[in-house]
Write a structure and sequence with these properties.
heterodimer; A: 129 residues; alpha+beta; five-stranded mixed β-sheet; 5 strands; globular; B: 287 residues; mainly beta; eight-stranded antiparallel β-sheet; 19 strands
């Protein structure tokens, strides 16, 4: 997907992946999903996950690539969700080799019911040539 | 359809380091946080003559200057003095010696040959940062104090260097190759501070009937994640009148205290003609 390769490269570092649950069906074996829905076999109360997806239209009139994504940092507790999000923020914000990501760290959203978990989202802008 | 695919020199806005070299200095010093874009504009006077009965004569330009402006957020007195080109002077007034400086622990996993800030605070119950004019006196620097202690020797196992990025104004840089302990970076280091005399305050002064300003050079550099740079250098300039504004924002205002700075660069005639005012360097592949 447009922009997702760079985002995956930026997220797939040990500082971030060491905080995630394992998940067999992903390229890096970690609970990191390019999707706006978490797989149904993820245990929301115990597994720590990241999922990322586009959050705004892609402007075809631009002469360079600019992609807006959400990165959701989910966990069973507020602290774990927040800690993961802050780690992601400090790792990817204003970094990139041949591209640049600028991130905003948003407020943590509490679970809406007993099947949900804490989510601390980041809103990012990825710029590429 | 896209009209061109030529985009190898697209650069991503990511700020830059602005560094200043005052007259007589050998190196550029980073001034710290900048709150706005750093813009440099090339200006010159145009002399173009329209004849009454012939073609317009060639355009001649002269009096080339470069106007540079930015808003400084890190209001460090030493930087202001550098930017001032002689308009400002600085005096550090020493305070009373402090004997209660708490120990500092550098956690295991420290990076060798890297500046590690020496962080001194008044006491274990007062976290006021202590800065010193002179390099702080250290009673001891011990590697692995809770295991097999090795007393580290200054100038052999480590050096203490002035560092404007350090809260105290000083940093420690290890030389692990000289240490006796095997794999020294896997052990913590404990620094015990002796009595040290802090800087109590710094005062910047200005005001005299006349002054010949000293030249200042400015370098603006962006470094990408691959270590490649884009850099603009202004070889010689002076701060504009009105270019130093000392302000105290109201509590109802946003952001931080800032200082708008305006500079005018002029040709340095000691340099090669055609290269006397500015340079803009881009390393291949820089983002």
């Amino acid at each position: 997907m447009m922009g997702s390769t760079e985002i995956y490269t930026s997220l797939n570092v040990s500082a971030i992946t060491s905080l995630l649950a394992t998940y067999a069906d992903t390229p890096n074996g970690k609970a990191m999903f390019e999707d706006n829905v978490i797989p149904s076999d993820v245990l929301c109360k115990t597994d720590v996950t990241i999922n990322y997806f586009p959050s705004a239209p892609i402007d075809g009139g631009l002469e360079y690539g600019e992609y807006h994504y959400y990165i959701n940092c989910r966990a069973g507790t507020y602290y774990t969700s927040r800690n993961l999000a802050e780690t992601v923020f400090s790792t990817i914000n204003r970094h990139g080799s041949g591209y640049l990501i600028v991130a905003q760290l948003l407020s943590t959203v509490e679970p809406k019911d007993e099947t949900d978990n804490y989510n601390t989202p980041l809103s990012i802008i990825l710029k590429t040539r | 359809m896209a009209q061109t695919t030529k985009k190898g020199n697209i650069y991503y806005p990511d700020g830059a380091v602005l560094a200043v070299k005052a007259d007589g200095e050998a190196v550029y010093t980073d001034v710290g946080i900048i709150m706005t874009a750093i813009a440099t504009t090339l200006n010159y006077d145009v002399n173009e003559v329209n004849t009454a009965n012939g073609d317009k004569l060639d355009r001649q330009v002269k009096n080339m200057t470069a106007a540079l402006s930015f808003t400084l957020g890190n209001l460090e007195p030493a930087s202001l003095v550098r930017l001032g080109g002689g308009v400002l002077t600085k005096v550090d007034t020493a305070g009373s010696p402090i004997s209660t400086l708490p120990n500092q622990t550098i956690a295991a996993g420290w990076a060798d040959q890297t500046l590690i800030p020496l962080t001194m605070v008044v006491s274990s119950s007062d976290s006021t940062v202590v800065r010193t004019v002179a390099a702080p006196t250290l009673t001891s620097v011990t590697l692995d104090p809770s295991g097999t202690p090795e007393i580290l020797a200054e100038d052999t196992d480590y050096v203490v260097v002035a560092d404007t990025h350090s809260p105290s104004g000083w940093s420690l840089q290890t030389l692990s190759g000289n240490m006796g302990t095997s794999s020294p970076t896997t052990f913590e280091i404990v620094i015990i501070y002796d009595t040290n005399t802090p800087i109590a305050n710094t005062t910047v002064y200005a005001g005299q009937s006349t002054l010949v300003m000293a030249d200042v050079a400015i370098q603006v550099t962006h470094t990408d994640d691959d270590g490649l740079i884009r850099r603009m250098t202004l070889y010689s300039g002076d701060i504009d009148s009105g270019g130093l504004v000392f302000s105290f924002k109201g509590a109802n205002e946003e952001g931080i205290e800032e200082m708008p700075i305006a500079f005018t660069g002029k040709p340095d005639t000691s340099l090669t003609s055609g290269r006397q005012l500015i340079s803009w360097t881009v390393e291949d592949g820089a983002a």
